[in-house]
Fold:
Amino acid sequence: MSSQNDESATQALPDRTQQNPAEDKGEEVSKNAAKKAAKAAKLAEQKADKAKNKGIGKSEAKMPTSKTPKKKIDGAALIGIDVSKEEDFPHWYQQVLTKGDMLDYYDVSGCFILKPASYFVWETIQNWFNDKIKKMGVRNCSFPLFVSEDVLQREKDHIEGFAAEVAWVTHAGSTPLERKIAIRPTSETVMYPYYAKWIRSHRDLPLKLNQWNSVVRWEFKHPQPFLRTREFLWQEGHTAHLTEESAAEEVLQILDHYAHVYEDLLAVPVVRGKKTEKEKFAGGYYTTTVEGYIPATGRGIQGGTSHCLGQNFSKMFGITVEDPNAKGEDKGASLYVWQNSWGLSTRTIGVMVMIHSDNRGLVLPPRVAEIQTIIVPVGITKNTTDEERAQIYKDCSELASKLAAVGVRTETDLRDGYSPGYKFNDWELRGVPLRLEFGPGEAKGGFITASRRDIPGKDGKTTIPLNSLTTAVPELLDTIHNDLYKRADDQFREHRKQITKWDDFTPLLNQKNVLLIPHCLTEECEDQIKELSARKAEEDSGVAQDARAPSMGAKSLCIPFEQPEGIEHGVTKCLNPQCTRLAEKWCMFGRSY
Amino acid sequence: MSSQNDESATQALPDRTQQNPAEDKGEEVSKNAAKKAAKAAKLAEQKADKAKNKGIGKSEAKMPTSKTPKKKIDGAALIGIDVSKEEDFPHWYQQVLTKGDMLDYYDVSGCFILKPASYFVWETIQNWFNDKIKKMGVRNCSFPLFVSEDVLQREKDHIEGFAAEVAWVTHAGSTPLERKIAIRPTSETVMYPYYAKWIRSHRDLPLKLNQWNSVVRWEFKHPQPFLRTREFLWQEGHTAHLTEESAAEEVLQILDHYAHVYEDLLAVPVVRGKKTEKEKFAGGYYTTTVEGYIPATGRGIQGGTSHCLGQNFSKMFGITVEDPNAKGEDKGASLYVWQNSWGLSTRTIGVMVMIHSDNRGLVLPPRVAEIQTIIVPVGITKNTTDEERAQIYKDCSELASKLAAVGVRTETDLRDGYSPGYKFNDWELRGVPLRLEFGPGEAKGGFITASRRDIPGKDGKTTIPLNSLTTAVPELLDTIHNDLYKRADDQFREHRKQITKWDDFTPLLNQKNVLLIPHCLTEECEDQIKELSARKAEEDSGVAQDARAPSMGAKSLCIPFEQPEGIEHGVTKCLNPQCTRLAEKWCMFGRSY
Structure:
């Protein structure tokens, strides 16, 4: 790959990138490109306004979480992002998603439209994960959207965690239903009565089912696309095992798959660990988790959870088998099965966007990008003949076919009337990982000019000889993936501070870090830390914090599996100054989504 | 393939099939198999009873549509189907689905659980169809489950078709919502406000989106698994085009894909055609359809519909572009886009089951069977040594690996303590298309014994030399598919009667036929035919009809694209004796689901 990063080659490259199509200069054929672009953008705005008047996109208008006015980026392109990630993260996130064609706001608050580009990411995750779990013997199925009140409320701790957020159907047409019916917030209570019916003997174990569906949790907190939505897409796996060991093994297998979805598909680093008692799944035995980190806000984010439910639900729902290992007097004794549940949602997409994208728009990791490579014809001027232009277009299409043949998802942008600069902006906004430029110069030299989305300007430019195109492009896409991951991983590591003095806690928290501290793992102590760090944040700054630097306290994110040295059992104290207990583990705390 | 159907070979085969495990004789090692099977069945029954007491499976108890007692099949296996398809179709269908492990009843009426075997069929359809539509430029996406009252009601004709069946959410937790929110019965009104926003110019056309989701139609008629359910899974495609031609072309492409899902995956014949004005999609321009036929009841069934919506919705929702072809004075004139919508649901699975399955249980067409081939070890007796048994098991596993390597979905059934007869019954019940038996005799002879699920007894048996296993089995699976299709197609053709005398209409209808008649295509006339054929049915039989031979009148199923000769325009009369109009087309009428 070193040849592609050859400085001398890249420095000789023309910079055809034009931040603003209105600044487009003479070289290109279409004098009217800027006008057309401006007109198109204006039309779009008018249309959007019209739609808003009809009530569409209303929630978009309401969306801002911060009270401060939008911070505009000076000279930002008309079609591009006009607030910066650093200064107004909530608006930036909104713009990256909507202008990057990933998502649209919807007229039912808290619900969002997943446009094809983001749904493609989800489909890629689905295919990858289906392949892994099917190899584990998991089978997909489909349980109903609805759950009766009786069944929903059978497990008390569990339902307490969801009760306030359950959406209730009370009417069909104008007819009131005899009994109101809930929309599932998750499917434990939907499925487990049937596990009790289906599991007749230890031969039926393990029972491993999964479903891809949507669930509804009618949260009253401020909704945020992908991260906190009232309906969201996910998969939920529900399995039953004869032994705790079998259940425990699977919990970790699944967690590992979740980690790899982040690492290998989304180029997002995560920390694997266990949730504390306070943060575990309501009604479960223990919860394992992969935790991510959003550098722009310094907040942790739960990426996916794999729960061992123990025998709690099997006792509530009467899921038993005859113990095959019971001997003598115990023969015929029944055994409550061990259960797991595990879920990964479209939140994955939000995490990916927040981490990688920049002030030019979306940045998609190559493995989940619907379009991995966009080929743009360049160097067409007023003096170019129709034949020459036709030849360049034809060459572009042929290059696209060659790349498609080796599995690279490639498109060409042969739109007339738009300048290369306009097109460059457009595809950057949509996060296409790699742009290939091809014109008379490239044709003559037998190469193609490549521009990486993840490295702006000349540093991200290189040339690829045409005869190595079909090997070099896939390699370059892999390099982009690895570099995206490394940058995010470096940031996460820099902001994961291991501390042993309480006085460091809140200042470091306020500097966008998550903190590894010796902790007693009790709920009471967690509550204290949350309170202490929340108050301190306000004192420090002297002003009320807005959504960008929340005054919320820190909570425990996870007990990382990878434990540093330094805790001497029976000696090391819990870091919380108000706590008198001994430390059990290094526990990761942080502000969190 | 002819060698496999060699009579002399099949006649020499042992018949190891045992209808009732309790009748299992000495040959097999497990003397206790029958007892165990009986015990397992009893336990299962007790468990089911227990579950019912908890309210689970209640709707199953309520399910029967006919008032007559179940007709038991004499000598039916304990675990098998105990009513016959011919005598008690509704109970038979219920048993085939539940005992075949395809589906379970759910404690919210009208909702059902799709177990892995049926969900696999759906996944296979999804993969196949996704491949086809992606090649057409359709992209998948996800719109919300919820739709506001305002938006839902914007298109009057459309909503009239669904209003009585819309489920309404009115509360979240114990908090009443400000405005009640509907669960989508279909997504036209959910999506089209956004089409108005997104489609800015003719360059954005065609816009082709699809989603895989579930919709809710709270029907008050008697629910039937897969055929009439309050929640069902489907795909819904929604596209926008610049011209009627472009829309019309796509309507037929999609209809063709639907036909091929039935024909090529489910081995189900369908008739392609157009719906009459009376039966078309509410609010649409015209509807095309694939229509199937259920021989056991003689009823037609709508298999999937592809609608051209015309410009009706685009006018309601203001989806316009500037006409790119307008010249002179018309320049700048705006144009309402042409729209299509098309949907295929899990109803497909019900049709497939009703057509192919028999009194031994489910019959799955090979291309959608999760397990295509089950390998069962045979010929193990009291005198078989442990080593010999281990060798046979090992051979079975190796054969399975070989088949898996060529893409045949293969499992082995090496359960101890169950006789081959018991296993045969079990896999037949689950519809596995091909059973392979392997024992000492087969090992010695270098062959494997194959039993087709679709041809019972010795006629379906053949032997396959081990050295041609990996080519012969895929070929045999294709043969099974083709034979299943041909049998169903023959039946459909036999029961599709072209008639020109009204007096033949109701008698032939009562003989489980669908009828091709010269028809005027008016709604008034259809209503008359429905009334005439309903009344006549009761008169003919003298007693009220039950669900198996419904007294419902005939309705128009479709105007087949393939029109027979015989209608002379301006001369041929509509067949309805009360109608004075001229016939326009041959129209297919029938009782229908």
Observations:
- The longest strand of chain B covers residues 299-310.
- Chain B has three domains: 98-142+185-356, 373-488, 496-590.
- Residues 496-590 of chain B form a domain with the Translation Initiation Factor IF3 fold (CATH 3.30.110.30).
- Chain B touches chain A through 72 residues (CB under 8 Å).
